[in-house]
């Protein structure tokens, strides 16, 4: 089993599940027990400022960094928030996944958003995608997903509406030419 932590899973055209159709999912954890990831291109009908208001977190008015959307990270634990950002050492519950990407789940990062202590770039998701042991490998074998190394440029600097297309371009072939039997002898 190849460890896909710090990779993007790209939904192929064969994946018809409405929750994951044309999604890009950042894999935070992948081991013999299963996998966990965050969908990064499905904006929720909720802005960052609206979420902070609901959590009664005070933030600076008119801050450009807070104007974006919260993302639907996946169908599991939709009340749980995850902040994907460049590495910083000052948050309580963080996991550094690469030299360029960290995921934080503690409230302290939300309280800092909009301040000078906040990460320079971030993506906020609610919920996550989870796979049981062997499930992701099975779905990869069915050509539901393709994997590429995570790219901070795509994550932080590409508009959400363009992330799936940009990710598929990194594959080096036209994903629409895939058939359901590709990769099977």
From TrEMBL:
Gene Ontology CC annotations of this record: cytosol
PANTHER family noted in UniProt: UNCHARACTERIZED PROTEIN YQGE (PTHR30327), UPF0301 PROTEIN YQGE (PTHR30327:SF1)
UniProt xrefs under NCBIfam families: PRK00228.1-1
Recorded superkingdom: Bacteria
Native source species: Idiomarina abyssalis
InterPro entries per the UniProt record, alphabetical: AlgH-like
Coiled coil segments of this chain: none
Family of the protein in this entry: Belongs to the UPF0301 (AlgH) family.
Protein name, UniProt field: UPF0301 protein JHC10_06985
């Amino acid at each position: 089993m190849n460890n896909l932590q710090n990779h993007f899973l790209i939904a192929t055209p064969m994946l018809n599940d409405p929750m994951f159709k044309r999604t890009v999912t950042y894999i935070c954890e992948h081991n013999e027990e299963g996998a966990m990831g965050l969908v990064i291109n499905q904006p929720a009908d909720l802005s960052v400022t609206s979420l902070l208001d609901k959590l009664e977190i005070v933030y600076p008015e008119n801050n450009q960094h807070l104007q974006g959307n919260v993302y639907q990270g996946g169908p599991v634990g939709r009340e749980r928030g995850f902040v994907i950002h460049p590495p910083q050492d000052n948050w309580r519950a963080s996991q550094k996944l690469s030299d360029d990407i960290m995921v934080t789940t503690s409230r302290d990062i939300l309280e800092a958003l909009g301040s000078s202590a906040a990460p320079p770039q971030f993506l906020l998701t609610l919920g996550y995608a989870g796979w049981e042991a062997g499930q992701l490998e099975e779905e990869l074998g069915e050509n539901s997903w393709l994997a590429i190394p995570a790219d901070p440029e795509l994550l932080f600097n590409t508009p959400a509406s363009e992330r799936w297309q940009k990710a598929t371009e990194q594959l080096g072939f036209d994903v629409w030419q895939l058939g359901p039997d590709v990769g099977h002898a």
